[in-house]
Amino acid sequence: MVIDNHGTAVNVTVVQAPVLIKFRRSRRIDVSGIEAAVRAAADRAGVELTERREGTPPELPTDHPLIRLAENVTGKPAATAPYGTDASELQDIAPCVILGPGTIATAHTPRECVALADLAAAVPIFRRMLSAAGT
């Protein structure tokens, strides 16, 4: 949750302070109860609630050929994680799998980085994925 106080000191009550809540959903979880609770809380507090949704989560079935390919190439089982990704929008064009070097521990932080060794190790994986996808 991010509260925008428009640069005003935190001990000052502003006329309007928008709050942004980023809620990442999963296709396998029914979030209707959570959404209803947020709407009810806004109503009780007299707060204007505006909802804006991104694309649906990019969760292909575990038996999808792209998921099986990624598992075969990486030697690791597929997993679902609650991270935001452009794949939510891009999946309208083609099936998507999220795969790449680095760690979520530093993603979108002041210390965001990817080790050069991780980048180098990713190249053969991407080559094998692209070669297999082209056949």
**What portion of residues belong to β-strands?**
under 5%
**Quick one: biggest sheet?**
2 strands, antiparallel
Number of strands: 2
Structural domain count:
2
Q: List low-pLDDT spans.
A: none
Topology, element by element:
Elements: E1 2-3, E2 19-20, H1 32-45, H2 65-74, H3 87-90, H4 116-133
Helix pairs in contact: 2-4
Describe this structure in words.
With 135 residues, the chain is mainly α. Helix content is 34%, strand content 3%. It has 2 domains: 2-45, no CATH class; 65-133. It contains 4 helices and 2 strands, in the order ββαααα.
Short description:
With 135 residues, this protein is mostly helical. Helices cover 34% and strands 3% of the residues.
Features:
2 strands, single chain, 3% strand, 135 residues, elongated, 2 domains
